[in-house]
Write a structure and sequence with these properties.
eleven-stranded mixed beta sheet; about 375 residues; 25 strands; mainly beta
């Protein structure tokens, strides 16, 4: 008699009962299923992220280019980070007439003084920074309350969070953001990161895209000084420090832009990308989830189905990890609960079909999915998600 497959199992992280085939625990949101192939994929992705992160914040000379450009609520902050040399904040050309010479001289002196004052490595809630082409806003901080009774901190400890917004203002290059770039120290001692919170801060941002999210740490309740270091360049080990000062909220809101990509592909389109032929089969609201995988309030799942055909001479590997989703230009979290998620090694002349699923806001105007065709050149194909 064949052994009957069990219906449930215990999550190895939070010890709650979950469906036997679950790949991600619906309670603690940690992965509970995966083989060697998964770790190979993750290792490759992390390596690429490290290379990208290590180079994204440095200029040609290799110096740390992180500078403070203002604070939330300061009208000049957005102008400092968005307007270019020789332009006013509204985009018009700056005046260079003789009548403006005195004003320019005074402005240069003020700018020099301001630049000197802003050469710093410690930042507080509300500070706005530029790391190369990436705008960083330290949005808020505070104590994080975990609802799951099985995931409470040890006695004498608490969870804290720091919230950030990252915006890639480059015209061409990708920018990678990862919670692995952050380390926490309480009174000089290294603290553990907590992975149970929502909206973790990890994303690959193509040009013009943005994201916001949180990082969490476990710290002593009586800690006097808490610092969170962010590594801006892994190769030179350059870091900046964000100070945790309890409950703080800058009021900053990351605004999206409802502007569709001009050359985005629609359902039914067939695209040639290197040695692959990609067919965009469908895009629809996903209602196949169970009670264990409900989307957050104000969100729904979008599922896109693709077919890949290897028309080249060598093997091709495709994975849902190569896809990113943006709603009005803001990064969306990928969902991993579907069994038909796209992941395959395709030999020459063969095909693979699968899905990618993302959680998107109900009120989003423009939803697009990007497929990274080449890690080294950041080439991408953009698909429109008109459900």
């Amino acid at each position: 008699m064949a052994k009957q497959k069990p219906e449930t199992k215990l999550c190895k992280h939070c010890k709650t009962e979950i469906p036997y085939d679950a790949k991600v625990c619906p309670n603690c949101r940690k992965r509970v299923k995966g083989g060697v192939a998964k770790w190979i994929i993750i290792a490759i992705v992390v390596l690429v992220l490290l290379v990208a992160i290590g180079s994204s914040g440095s200029d040609e000379g290799g110096d740390n280019s992180v500078t403070k450009v203002g604070t939330v609520g300061d009208a000049s902050s957005s102008a400092s980070s968005e307007s270019g040399d020789g332009e006013n904040a509204d985009g018009s050309e700056a005046s260079t007439s003789e009548g403006d010479a005195g004003a320019e001289s005074q402005g240069d002196a003020e700018a020099q003084s301001e630049a000197t004052a802003e050469v710093q490595t410690e930042y507080r809630v509300g500070d706005i920074l530029m790391d190369g082409d990436v705008k960083i806003v330290y949005m808020s901080s505070g104590v994080y309350t975990e609802d799951n009774e099985y995931l409470q901190p040890e006695e004498g400890y608490q969870y804290i969070y720091l919230q950030f917004a990252f915006e890639n203002q480059s015209d061409t290059d990708d920018a990678s953001v990862s919670f692995y770039s952050f380390d926490c120290y309480a009174d000089g001692y290294s603290m553990e990161m907590y992975y149970g919170g929502d909206e973790d801060l990890s994303a690959t941002l193509s040009a013009g895209r943005a994201t916001s999210g949180y990082i969490y740490f476990t710290v002593p309740e009586d800690a006097q000084e808490i610092e969170v270091e962010y590594t801006t360049n892994y190769f030179t080990e350059e870091k900046i420090t964000f100070l945790y000062e309890g409950e703080q909220d800058s009021g900053y809101v990351l605004e999206g832009t409802a502007e569709a990509t001009a050359d985005a592909f629609a359902v039914g389109d067939i695209i040639e990308a290197g040695g692959l032929t990609i067919t965009y089969l469908s895009c629809e609201t996903d209602t196949s989830y169970s009670d264990y995988y409900q989307p957050e309030s104000g969100y729904h799942y979008v599922i896109c189905t693709f077919e890949f055909e290897n028309t080249g001479d060598s093997d091709e590997y495709v994975s849902f990890y190569d896809f990113d989703c943006y709603a009005d230009g803001l990064n969306c979290n990928q969902a991993y609960f579907r069994d038909d998620a796209l992941s395959a090694t395709i030999s020459s002349g063969h095909k693979a079909q699968g899905t990618v699923t993302f959680q998107v806001p109900d009120d989003a105007s423009v939803v697009e999915v990007e497929y990274l065709t080449n890690y080294w050149t950041s080439n991408r194909v953009v698909f429109s998600c008109n459900e």
